[in-house]
Structure formats: structure tokens, C-alpha cells
Design goal:
Layout (H helix, E strand, L loop, with lengths): L2 H12 L15 E5 L3 E3 L4 E6 L6 E6 L7 E3 L7 E6 L8 E9 L2 E2 L6 E6 L6 E4 L4 E3 L4 E7 L5 E6 L4 E7 L1 E3 L4 E8 L7 E10 L2 E5 L6 E6 L7 H30 L2
């Protein structure tokens, strides 16, 4: 084969259009917990990892544990896998992510899901600083307090079992206790809201205390009344009465002076 022929052959091959075959698009999976992310110890929990119908296997990763922590095949005719915990305990609490594998590769990892377990320390107390009756659209400050040296407190809505607020604790010297103040509001829907709070230590931030007694907030839907017009009418009537009394007094005095 001559050099010229080889050059022409190479040139011809280089002019042949190349077809690009894209790799399969793999969406980031979604991680959920049922019945919720705040669990009383000993309760049953199911974690679902939802990906794609082409997934061959799902993997559950717990932060600080060997990767993966668990693996499951997808549900039949579905695009997700479920990881079941018959009894949720302290060693199960933590931060979780999941991912899946297809015939073309690995997906990216899901967002973190924090799972808390409660019932390990003495419960704190929860109260409203002003009143548990809150006007429609108003705010209220809730105080979570304990004599134990918790590093932080968490406030949850009883209806959703979902973390709403988490704050560091503050030591109150005058009372020799620890507390956190949560500002809740504006409250604009529903007539009643029930809250609980928990204490925790930074060494195990997903292991919480016993829940406080429930605190129920009542949202008042009555709107403040505007009495401006009524006050103007009252002032007008009062002025008229004073004017009439003044005229009568003047006439009485004038009548006495007449011979």
C-alpha cells in the first residue's frame, strides 16, 4: 500500500460523520420516610427511594456507616425500592441518602433525609410566653425549657410530625435552666395548632428526649373592630349636650338679671 493511498484512505475515513450516542439520563432519586422523620423508639419505619423504572438495584447510605448500608431490588412494576425497619432505635437515627444502579451506570445520590428517634432523655416543658390564644395572622413566642443541659431544642407540629424549628439552647442564670425561644407565625389557617418540643445533645443530634406535653394554640378568627365612627358620633352628641346646657345656663342667668 503506497503512502499516497494510505493518506487518501485516512482522509476518507476522517470525513465519515460520527454518530454520538448519549448515555441514559438518570434523575436524582427521591428519599422519603413513612410515617415520618421523627420516630418514637420502637416504631416501624419504611424508607422509600424513588428513581427510574430502569433501575436494577437501589442502595441506602447512612452517613458514617459503610457504603452502602442496605440494598434492595426495585418493587415489581415500579420505580422505587423500600427499606423496612421493624423497630426503629438509636442506632438507626442519622442522615440518609440513596442512589440506584442501571445497566449503564450509577445515579447521583439523593438529598439528605434526617431521621430522628425520640424517647431517650427527660422531657422539657413547652409554653406560650403571652397567651395560647393567637389572633388571626398574629405571631406567638413559644418557650422550650429544661433543667438538663441540652445543647439544643427542636419544635415540631403534632399534625405533620415534621421538624419546624431547631435552635441552640441558652442558659438562664437566674432560673438555673436551659431554654430556646421559638417565634411561630403568622398563623393564618386552621383554628387549632398543636406543638411539642424536644431536647438533644450535639454528640447525637438525631437522638431526642421524650416529647414535651402538647401545647395547643387556638387561632382566633375574629378581626379587630374599628370604633372610629362610633367615637366621632359619641363626641358629637356630647358636644351637642354641652352646648344645650350652656344655652340653658345662659338663659337662666340672664332671666335673673332682668328686673
Amino acid at each position: 500500500m503506497t503512502i499516497a493511498f494510505t493518506a487518501l484512505l485516512y482522509l476518507g475515513l476522517s470525513l465519515i460523520p460520527m454518530t454520538y450516542v448519549p448515555a441514559e439520563s438518570m434523575d436524582k432519586p427521591t428519599l422519603r420516610a413513612q410515617p415520618g422523620s421523627v420516630m418514637t423508639r420502637g416504631m416501624q419505619l419504611t424508607i422509600s427511594c424513588e428513581g427510574t423504572s430502569s433501575a436494577q438495584e437501589y442502595y441506602l447510605y447512612k452517613e458514617g456507616s459503610p457504603d452502602p448500608w442496605q440494598r434492595q431490588s426495585p418493587l415489581e412494576h415500579g420505580n422505587k425500592a423500600e427499606f423496612f425497619f421493624p423497630s426503629f432505635h438509636e442506632n438507626h437515627a442519622g442522615r440518609y441518602r440513596c442512589y440506584y444502579r442501571t445497566h449503564t451506570g450509577w445515579s447521583e445520590r439523593s438529598d439528605f433525609l434526617d431521621l430522628m428517634v425520640t424517647g431517650f432523655y427527660r422531657k422539657p416543658s413547652l409554653s406560650a410566653l403571652s397567651s395560647p390564644v393567637v389572633r388571626f395572622g398574629g405571631n406567638v413566642t413559644l418557650e422550650c425549657i429544661s433543667q438538663l443541659g441540652y445543647d439544643g431544642f427542636s419544635l415540631t407540629k403534632e399534625e405533620q410530625q415534621k421538624i419546624s424549628w431547631t435552635l441552640d439552647s441558652q442558659y438562664i442564670y437566674s432560673k438555673n435552666n436551659f431554654r430556646a425561644l421559638f417565634s411561630v407565625g403568622p398563623l393564618t389557617s386552621g383554628h387549632r395548632r398543636t406543638f411539642r418540643c424536644y431536647g438533644y445533645y450535639l454528640s447525637k443530634p438525631q437522638v431526642w428526649s421524650e416529647p414535651s406535653d402538647p401545647l395547643e394554640l387556638l387561632v382566633s378568627v375574629s378581626q379587630p373592630q374599628d370604633h372610629t365612627v362610633e367615637n366621632i358620633i359619641r363626641m358629637g352628641i356630647s358636644g351637642l349636650i354641652l352646648t344645650v346646657l350652656g344655652i340653658l345656663l345662659f338663659e337662666a342667668c340672664y332671666s335673673r338679671r332682668r328686673p
